[in-house]
Amino acid sequence: MPVGIFRVCLVVLAAIVNHPLIFPRENGTVPENTEEIIQKMKEREETLRLEQLRLEQEIAEQEAIQKALEKSAEVVKESKEEKVRWDMWTALSMVIFLLIELWRQDFQEGIWQDTGGEEDDMAVLGKAFKGVAFPDKAALASFYEKRILGTTGDMARMREMVEGFADDLLEALRSVCNRDADMEVEDCMGVGSMYENWRVRKPFVCDLIVPFAPPEPYCFRSQTWCSGDSFPSAEQGYGTIKVCRAGEDVTGCICDKTKLGEDMLCLLHSQANTTRPSSEMEDLLCFKNTQYLDANQVMKWFQIAVTKAWNRISHKYEFDLSFSLLDSPGALKIKFRSGKSIAFNLTPVVQYENSDVYFISHFPRSSLAADLPSSTHWFLTFAVYERRFIQLVSKTLPANACHVSCLQILSFLHGKQCSLTGPSGLTNYHLKTVMLHLLQARPSQDWAPEKLEARLQDMLKFLEKCLHEKKLYHFFIGNGKVPAELGFPIIFQRAEPLNLFRPFVLHRDVYRKTVDTFHEMLRNMTALINEYTVHIPLAQTNGIHKESF
To answer: Quick one: signal sequence residues (predicted)?
Structure first.
C-alpha cells in the first residue's frame, strides 16, 4: 500500500515539474525536441512494425514448412497403412479364391450325387405334372410287351447283317487304297442305341465308327478344349488334330520362327524337312496351308474310297448300295430288289491318344446344335465308354432291370409326340444322359422290374428339372465318380462340366418349342400308351389306381 502511494506522488511531481507553463523559459526548446522525439518514435515504431511483419512472415513460413512436413509424414504413414491393408486384402483374396476352388471341386464331385435325389426331393418338382394321370402298371407292362419287346429280335438280325457287310466293305477299301499314301483304315465298331438295345422307333439305323490313321512317317497330335490350349467357351466338346511327322515336336522348332543367316543351318532339321509343300499336306487331308486335319476333306476321301470298294465287291451281292443323305456324308443305304432297304452310318473317326474317346468327323445334328466353328474342329464322342458303362452297371442290377425299359418308353413317347407336333431341341442322346445320371445316383435295388413306373416318373421329373434350369450336364465330362474299371481318361474327369442345354440360353425359340413339346407329351402320354395297349380285363386292374404326379 505505501509503495502504491509513493508511486502516485512521484507521477504527480513529475507532471508538475515538466509542465510547460510552470517553467516556460527554461524549457523553450522542448516543443522542438518533442517533435524530433515523436518523429524518431514514429520511425522506430515503423521499423518495429516492419520487423514484426517480417518476423510474422518468417513464423508463417516456418509453420507452413512444419505443416508440409507433418502432412508428408502423414502421407507416408497412410501409404504404409494402405500397403499393409492392401497386403491384407491380397492375402484375404487368395484365401477366398482357394476356398472357392475347393468348394468348386467338392461341388463337382457332389453334383452327380444330387442329380438323382431322393423321393422327397423329386416330389418337390413336377409342377408340369399337376393334373396329369400317369398310366398304371398294367398298362405300362402291356404296352412294353406289345410295342417294345417285339423289336428286339429284328434289331439283332439287322446288326448281324450290317456288321458282316461293313467288314467286307472295309476289307475291299483297304485293297483299293495305296498303303504308302492313303489313310490306314481299322476295323469298325458299333455304337449307339442299336448296340445298347434301347432303339424302339423305326427305321432302325446302325451306327458304326471306323478309326483311321495317317500313313508312315506321319502321326496325329490331338488338342482338346480341356488340354490347356485356348478354346472359346462355344467350342467346348471340340478339338483339333494336327498331322506331324513321327518324332516331330508339336510346338515346332525355333528355325521355323526365326530367320537364320545364309551361312547357318539348323542341326535338328535338314533343308528338306523344314519346308513342307502345301500339296503334300492337302494329300494328307489337311486344311489348305495348315497341318490341321480337315473333316470335309476326310469325308470326301472316305466317300470316294467306299465307292471304289463297293465297285470291287458289288458282284457278290444282290442289292445296291448308295449314299442316302447329303447332309450326313457317312449315311449309307442298302436297297434290295424287293423294295426293302436297310440304312446304316459308317463314319470315320480319329482315336484320342490311347483311349476309346474318338474325334468324329460328322455328328448327327439337331435344331439345338450350333454349327461347327470350322472344318478343322472335330467333335469328341464318348459312345464306346457309354456302352461300356451301361454293360458294367447292368451286371450289378437285379434280373430284368427296368433302366433300359424306362429309356425305351421315354424315347418312344418323345418320338411319337415329335411326329405329331414337329421336332424339338430334345434328342435321344439327352434322354440317355438322363438315364445315365440316374443309374449312377440310385441304388441297384431301385431298378427292379416292378419299379418301372416309379423310375419312369423319376426320369420325367429329372428331365423337367433340367429343362427348367436349362442345365443337363454331360455324363462323363467333369464327372469324378466314373468307375475306375472303365479306364476313362482323367483329363476329361477333371474338366469343367459340359452343359448340353447351354444352347437353350441363346435359342429361346427352340427352348420354348422344346418345353411346349415336353408338356404336350405329358398330356398325351396316357393316350399314346393306350393306343398300343391291348384290352386289360377289369379283374386285373382291381387294386391298381391311377397315380398322378
So the answer is: 1-24
- 341-351 and 358-360 beta bridge pairing: antiparallel
Cell numbers at residue 368, please? 439345338
User: Per-residue confidence at 272, pLDDT binned at 50, 70, 90?
Assistant: very low
C-alpha cell at 348: 470315320
Q: What is the pLDDT of residues 53-64, one digit of tens each?
A: 888 888 888 888
What does the block give as the cell for 479?
A: 464327372
Q: Which residues contact 352 (CB under 8 A, 6 or more apart)?
A: 222, 224, 239, 358, 359, 380, 489
Task: DSSP for 444-481, please give it.
Answer: GGGG-GGGHHHHHHHHHHHHHHHHHHT--B-SSTT-TT
Asked whether the beta carbons of 491 and 226 are under 8 A apart, the reply is yes
Cβ proximity of 510 and 367 under 8 Å: yes
Give the number of other CB atoms < 10 A from CB of residue 77.
Answer: 10
Q: Note the pLDDT tens digit of each residue in 26-47.
A: 444 444 567 778 888 888 888 8
Kindly report the number of other CB atoms within 10 A of residue 88's CB atom.
10
**pLDDT tier, 362 (very low <50, low <70, confident <90, very high otherwise):** confident
What's the CATH fold of domain 123-247+279-534?
Beta Polymerase; domain 2 (3.30.460)
* pLDDT tens, residue by residue, 91-146: 777 778 667 766 655 554 444 444 444 344 444 345 556 667 778 788 888 888 88
| C-alpha–C-alpha distance, residues 425 and 330, integer Å | 23
Strands 341-351 and 205-213: parallel
H helices of 236-366, in order, are: 271-274, 278-283, 295-313
Cell of 145: 410287351
pLDDT band for position 7 (50/70/90)? low
pLDDT at 229: 62
**Alpha carbons 226 and 496: distance in angstroms, whole number:** 8
The domain segmentation of the chain, as residue ranges, is: 123-247+279-534
Q: What are phi and psi of 15, to 5 degrees?
A: -70, -40
Centre a 10 Å sphere on the Cβ of residue 294 and count the other Cβ atoms it contains.
23
Alpha carbon distance 58, 50 (integer Å): 12
The whole-chain average pLDDT of the chain stands at 79
- Alpha-carbon distance of 214 to 212, in angstroms, equals 7
Interval 453-461 mean pLDDT = 93
Q: Which residues contact 305 (CB under 8 A, 6 or more apart)?
A: 173, 176, 177, 182, 185
pTM: 0.71
Partnered with residue 347 across adjacent β-strands are 209
Q: What is the largest CA-CA distance in the chain?
A: 167
CB 447 within 8 A of CB 403: yes
pLDDT at 282: 58
